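We include the pair:
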Amino acid sequence: MKFIRPDRIWLKDHAELNERWVQDRIAEDPSILGLGDLVLKDKERRQPHAGRLDLLLQDPDNDRRYEVELQLDRTDESHIIRTIEYWDIERRRYPQYDHCAVIVAEDITSRFLNVISLFNSTIPMIAIQMTALGINDQVALVFSTVLNELSRGIEEEDEESQESVDRAYWEGRVGKDILGMADQLLTMLRQWDPALEMKYNKYSISPAKNGVVDKFVSFRPKRQFLRIEARLPQSEETGSHLEEAGLELMPYKWGKYRIRLTKADLAKQEKLIADLLKRAYENRES
């Protein structure tokens, strides 16, 4: 094969190839960004009291969303701020999804790469440098990740380091009614192991035996609902049953089904919840 040296094309100065052209190419095939087999959720998405998000991409396997902002030429302060602002708007509007900010530019200088790195410690953010290459009368786009999302510890690592608290701590945070739901679920669990008791820590409540947490299920109390996290293999049948029952499912994550459960949900779907907990309890031994 004959070697051909491509010409670097700076799209900022090009008469025909502009930001909209790049946006269309990514929209046609989001995989060219190198972030996986993503699908296009929206383009030029209007933001309340702000501008328009260039691209909203989604991973169909785990319902993760990527807020993508493009800029020709070098990135700058406004590009970074705009990317973070749109990411924040989307995650507040749709908290049931995981969100990641993606900044794409033709040139990401070391100065701004350092700035993005600082944000990356608290905001899921990816920086991608885009290069346009011309070969004869054709053009190619090459996307190189120069800063990946900070790898964060898995949930189990976080659980191990949680600070123990007492029941009064949770009553002060969410009230007695929500804790009453947790008590009702503990009563269900004691059908299969009477020795189970609740262990309270700063971020969740979990069943424990002889002081040792059993991780087959955990509860995360909120003021308006109780989040149940039941460890079970993911299956289309289980997901369909929960959705058909009208329960609010969060994306399947960490090998767990996560459900936002209200008092009305528990009263209406007590049998279904009991079955889910039983399966999670039995699955821990498999």
